[in-house]
Amino acid sequence: MTKQLLLGAHLKTSDGFGLTFARAKAIGANVVQIFLKSNKSWAMPVHDAAKLADYKNASVTNHIKSVVAHAGYLINLAAADEGVLQKSITSLAEELKCAEQFGISYLVVHPGSCAATEVGIKRISESINKALAQVPKAGCTLLLENMAGQGSTLGKTFEELAEIVTGVHHLDRIGFCLDTSHLFAMGYDFTSEKKLDAMLAEFDKIGGLNKLKVVHVNDTKETFGAHKDRHETIGKGNIGLANLRRIVHHPKLQEKIFILETPVDDTPNGYQVHAQEIADLL
């Protein structure tokens, strides 16, 4: 693995950080993505001094260069229901505070869903402002992830992502995460060198490649432009290994963090499938 290429996978932490980072090293990863809490719960667990020490020691021992956190799936920063909206803002603030504790640089979040696009986009910006106001430190950057376009999800186009950011007060605290499966689902074509160059140029003009920090490298079970998100093992889906390798090795993306979110078996050694995927992408 070259010094420039930061490549890893999303790994579970239920067995402890020591095992999480040891697994990362075993699959050839030098970066990791984790959940800071259950992705289907509002509750934030207590992370005491012992857990923080375990995290720091394990990451150093296993030569992990960077850790990305992914916010819980219940968060909807565009929710029309006031109760859900307030829970979402509070939960996002709690995750940002937790990320600060661990020294995690990036927290990825799904923007949210709303039937009324313009209203929803404005609500997301306002919700982010309220969450950031609860976290005075600025060590962790919030990253908006592009979506596949299912239902009323927002942030599915480069324009929507950029519009959300326009309404955020602290531009130095927000950036982007692009998911290859979501891009493909939305009809962004990167299946040749020329097409990838054009897509990146478009994103740079609208959102800014300087604000792109993380790329989720996922193949997909779905067809191009299907507006559906079903991840597949690298090389077994409709995007294909060659097109994903082209992204990982693109000259303009070499300082980005690449994270696999591809399917694994829920078994003790299920994560090992990532070892072959990483080897193939290299």
Number of domains in the coordinates?
1
* Class by SSE composition: alpha/beta
Query: Major sheet, described briefly?
Result: 8 strands, parallel, barrel
Helix segment tally: 9
Counting DSSP E segments of at least 2 residues, the number of strands comes to 12
Average residue-wise pLDDT: 95
Oligomerization state:
single chain
Radius of gyration, Cα only, in angstroms?
A: 18 Å
- Neighbour order of strands in the largest sheet: 1-2-3-4-6-8-9-12
Instruction: List the helices and strands in order.
Output: EHEHEHEEHEEHEHHEEEHEH
Distance between the termini: 7 Å
Query: Which homologous superfamily in CATH is the superfamily?
Result: Divalent-metal-dependent TIM barrel enzymes
- What proportion of the residues form beta strands (DSSP E)? 15-25%
CATH architecture assignment name: Alpha-Beta Barrel
User: Which regions contain 5 or more consecutive residues with pLDDT less than 50?
Assistant: none
Question: What would the CATH topology be?
Answer: TIM Barrel
What is the overall shape?
Answer: globular
Helix content: 25-40%
CATH C-level label: Alpha Beta
Characteristic key phrases:
two-stranded antiparallel ribbon; TIM Barrel; 282 residues; globular
Task: Characterise the protein shown here.
The chain is of the alpha/beta class. The protein has one domain (6-281): Divalent-metal-dependent TIM barrel enzymes (TIM Barrel). Helices cover 38% and strands 17% of the residues. The protein is built from 9 helices and 12 strands. It has helices at residues 17-26, 49-61, 82-102, 117-133, 158-166, 180-185, 193-206, 241-248, 273-281; strands at 6-10, 31-35, 66-70, 106-109, 112-113, 141-145, 153-154, 174-179, 212-217, 219-220, 231-232, 257-260. It has an 8-stranded parallel beta barrel with strand order 1-2-3-4-6-8-9-12. The model has no long low-confidence stretch (mean pLDDT 95).
